[in-house]
Amino acid sequence: KLHNTILELKGNIRVFCRVRPLLPDDGAATEGAVVSYPTSTESLGRGIDLIQSGQKYPFTFDKVFNHEASQRDVFVEISQLVQSALDGYKVCIFAYGQTGSGKTYTMMGRPEAPEQKGLIPRSLEQIFQISQSLQAQGWKYKMQASMLEIYNETIRDLLSTNRSICSDPTRPESAVSGKQYTIKHDANGNTHVSDLTIVDVSSIAEISSLLRQAAQSRSVGRTHMNEQSSRSHMVFTLRISGVNEGTEQQVQGVLNLIDLAGSERLSRSGATGDRLKETQAINKSLSSLSDVIFALAKKEDHVPFRNSKLTYLLQPCLGGDSKTLMFVNVSPDPSSVGESLCSLRFAARVN
Ligand code: ADP
Ligand code: MG
């Protein structure tokens, strides 16, 4: 509760930065390029500096996690926010950054290694545990999950059980199945996507199998379509309806966890056909997201939600008293310093 008060005082948008460890495939040292960030044993600070060609660019965020921060260390800092979805808030947590910066690791992690599980499985486990413990106070919860991908402004259902549709990612799903995935918002601020698979979930085991299914649908796309997953946004949504049988109090919360498309500047020169369309779609939706968050933070009258599928889909969960957290994922690889600078500037704009 105290945490919620602090969030309201400071506005509803937080930005956390996470620097991943250096990997064997990272490039060799680039002259004049340095990424420096907190190296205290607590692996958590607020500042990060980039040095490019001798020029220093300092940034400050709500939190900065260094390469030693574990999945658990990161989750500890967001668990209150996740819990507020059970209290009836609409919550969005995004991962932003260039391809290879650690977005999917942060969100999903490596599910086969328990200590490397990411925010999605950890959040769901926490929500189930707390909802169970609240049963003693008369609370009954119903949870529904959906998972979709937005690629080239087209929605693909990651939980569709129709394998033949999922295995032909070269065509828009609507062309194969006739499914439209039209987004509608009702008067109560609930979002409906026509034809989208919604799954009732009541246990952690069910969720684990859903996440496996979704990861599979996503990787099918990847092998067929040249890393399509890095060119698409993945949106996991958990809807929570709670009713207290004693007091008849009701709550409706939503938790959205979003693994965004890679933010790298794809060069327009030379890109033609599908590649150019893809590039334009990613640039447009990421800049729409930043426009929307910026307009909300500045309390502007007009918020351009309709400029992209992603912002339109999330509209009810971004405005009002909803809570938004953006992870900006950064590679420590000096040869990525230019991209990292772009990512941090993007994040600084919305912070
Ligand atoms: P993205 O989704 O942004 O393209 P990934 O999450 O796939 O990036 O990360 C790229 C690689 O770095 C993967 O092999 C991933 O396992 C690894 N990685 C990313 N972040 C971490 C981290 N904090 N600790 C260990 N390995 C990481
Ligand atoms: Mg990824």
Distance between the amino and carboxyl termini: 22 Å
CATH architecture: 3-Layer(aba) Sandwich
Beta fraction of the residues?
Answer: 25-35%
Radius of gyration: 20 Å
Count of individual beta strands:
13
Can you tell me the CATH superfamily? Kinesin motor domain
Instruction: Please give the largest β-sheet.
Output: 11 strands, mixed
Q: Can you walk me through this structure?
A:
The chain has a single domain, classed as Kinesin motor domain (Kinesin, 3-Layer(aba) Sandwich). Helix 2 packs across helix 4, helix 4 runs antiparallel to helix 7 and helix 8 runs parallel beside helix 9. By secondary structure, the protein is α/β, with parallel strands linked by helices. Strand 2 and strand 3 form a beta hairpin. The relative contact order is 0.21. The chain is globular and about 65 Å long. It is built from 10 helices and 13 strands. The strands form 2 sheets. Strands 1, 2, 3, 4, 5, 6, 7, 10, 11, 12 and 13 form an 11-stranded mixed beta sheet that branches. It has a two-stranded antiparallel sheet with strand order 8-9. It is 34% helix and 26% strand. The chain binds adenosine-5'-diphosphate (ADP) and magnesium ion. Adenosine-5'-diphosphate binds next to helix 3.
